[in-house]
Structures are given as C-alpha cells and as structure tokens.
Amino acid sequence: MGFLMLEAVIFDFDGIIVYSQPYYYSEMARFLKTLHKGITQNDINDLLGHSFTEKLEYLKTKFGIELSSVEFLSKTADPAFEKLLKKEKPSPVLLSLLKSLKKAGIPLGVATANSKKIVPFVLDAFSISNYFSAVVTTDDVVNSKPAPDVYLKAVQLLGKNPKNCVAIEDTPVGIASAKAAGLMVIAMPTDYSRKLDFSEADLIVSCFDEINLPLLRGFFK
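and the corresponding structure tokens:
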C-alpha cells in the first residue's frame, strides 16, 4: 500500500513553525539604521533562508561592517525573538497538523538555517518540542542551506529514507536544500517570500489548512 511509504515530515523553522521574518528584518533594519545603512526588499530576498552567519557575511560585503557573529545576533536575532515570544503563539492549524501526524505515528523533524541558541528555546516556549524527534540547526552541520546537510542529518536522526520524507519550506533556498537531500517538498510562501521562484517545489500551498495526512501520503501512491 502506497501510503506506508510516508516515513517522516520535516519542517523548516522560520516562516513555517514561526512567522519570524517581520520581527527579524525589522530588528536588522533598526540596527543598520544606527550605522546609517539600510536594506532593500531585494536584500531581504537574497537573505531569506540563509543562516545568520551568511547574512552577516552578506552585510559585511555590502556595507563593510565589522562585527562578530555574537554581536550580530545580539543586535538582530536576540531582540527579534524576544519580541516574537511576547506576541506570538503557535498557529492553531499547525498544532492540529502536528497532533494528527503524531497520532498517525509519523515521525517529525525540524531542519533549519536558524541557530541552536534560538530554535530549541522557541520550541519549548511554544510547548511543541515534544512533537519533534529530530531538531537540526545550522550549528549542527558543516554547510547550511541551500546545501542538503540539515535535511540529511534530520533524516538520519529519524532513521528514515529521504526519498520517503516530505519537507515543508517557505523559501527557494530551503526548497533547494530539501530537494538536494532527496525529499519531496511542499512550499508554503509567506508574505516575505511570495514573489520568489517556487518552481522547484513538488506542491505549493498557501496555508497549513491545505496540508493533511491524506495529502502527504498521496505523494507516494
């Protein structure tokens, strides 16, 4: 029976589990303003899906900023996620999907370009850590997205075949990572990424309401 081939579902973090982009890029813009610099929508398009280290390198190249990774995180990501946790809660539709997949015995993972400092903390704060059997951040691998490393490691930790797993992503960078690892990919663009190219995804949806167990199993019939 084809549906038995669905072995796991792996979620991206930023833009999928948490809608962090408005907070993060607002803090980045605020910080750059103190340096009399500014970012455009084209800059944001280039940065979406990449790790903090790669974001910092991009800004260093563009603006000549001299800043350590620790300082960069303290000026951008730390205040962004502090504000996010004060205002946001897990999407009820996401929670419903997580519960249905767990009830069906489908292992779940997270594969993200975000950091080990932030991701487990937010998952705990949202009380959803228990749904995920594998959480892989950019700090756990050599190469971040769009390289396949985070997805390959997540699949390995789950003990599954990547060809029988589905990733849920919101950026072309993340899609490239998951596809390079051999997963099927559902794209769920956010307002920040909606105008980018999602042609490499196997399916494009607008929200979690469109994702359910029959649909996920349907990839393998």
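(Above: one complete record from the training split.) The CA atoms of residues 49 and 173 lie 5 Å apart.
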